[in-house]
Amino acid sequence: MTDADRFDLNDFLPYRLNAAASRISRAFSERYREEFGISIPEWRVLVHLHHAGDVSVRDIEARVDMEKSKVSRAASRLETAGYITKGVNDTDRRLLVLRLTDKGEALVARLLPVAMEYQDEMRARLGPLAAGLEAGLSALLSDEA
Amino acid sequence: MTDADRFDLNDFLPYRLNAAASRISRAFSERYREEFGISIPEWRVLVHLHHAGDVSVRDIEARVDMEKSKVSRAASRLETAGYITKGVNDTDRRLLVLRLTDKGEALVARLLPVAMEYQDEMRARLGPLAAGLEAGLSALLSDEA
DNA sequence: AAACATTTATTGCACATGCAACAATGTCAA
DNA sequence: TTGACATTGTTGCATGTGCAATAAATGTTT
Q1: Residue of chain B whose alpha carbon sits nearest to that of A5
Q2: Domain of A88, in residue numbers
């Protein structure tokens, strides 16, 4: 109760967090959707493959904050586009082995500079507030069941 | 280029922001979806109506970070559920006048304490980092075309 | 070995979403 | 006033999403 009558959505932390994330994600995805024609889920899969090497759908699900069905569909689109291949793990044939093709590596090589540039712009706009924001995000991402 | 080979998605600020927002929103919406049966867009409309009084779809669109079609559909669901009414603005008959019913006011009165409690828990988990996070969010939300 | 349980990835389904029409209303200049 | 243009809210459509169900492979228990 208390001062609930003065409750303003724009002062509500979960809303503010979500609104900021939506704007940033939208602006970022527009930037490379035009240029490279890929979506956010596809971007995440590509970048994780580049970083982690051959991995399964399960690995990506665990580390990239995406449902397995989302990963599966993103991977299928990337395979169709020729950016990755889907192989079978000989040790455990339930697992896929997702791997970047040469074409996929080339795409990532063009994507990453755009991403880093965007992050630099974000940090520049934040100035001295960047460190505080990142520390807060770390706290929210750390435990969280 | 540079250190692009070591690029880790989990160190990428836009990704971290989005992942944190997703988790918080999901946890929050689960909490009141079970109890009150409403979605995030519906929650935003209800809360904004409570705060701002009678408003049009356009007003909500501008202040609550939602597309007008999303607002329109949320409002229709809320009307069907008996939480709001849709009237016509006599001065400009293109505009709707969205208004909370008594039932809607009663729902908001039960919703807001849950929201404030959730925000308090967030701030408690963040501890001294909360201020820095909020300052960073303010910077991201301020200008942004 | 057989029966049962668990894990992995895909897919069907219902629903939400964004965008582009669209109709209704309002504004304004000639 | 008329006619061109702008604004407001709704809806059709294609697409994305989460969840549950499923099949295939593996693990476990007896």
Answers
A1: B51
A2: 39-123
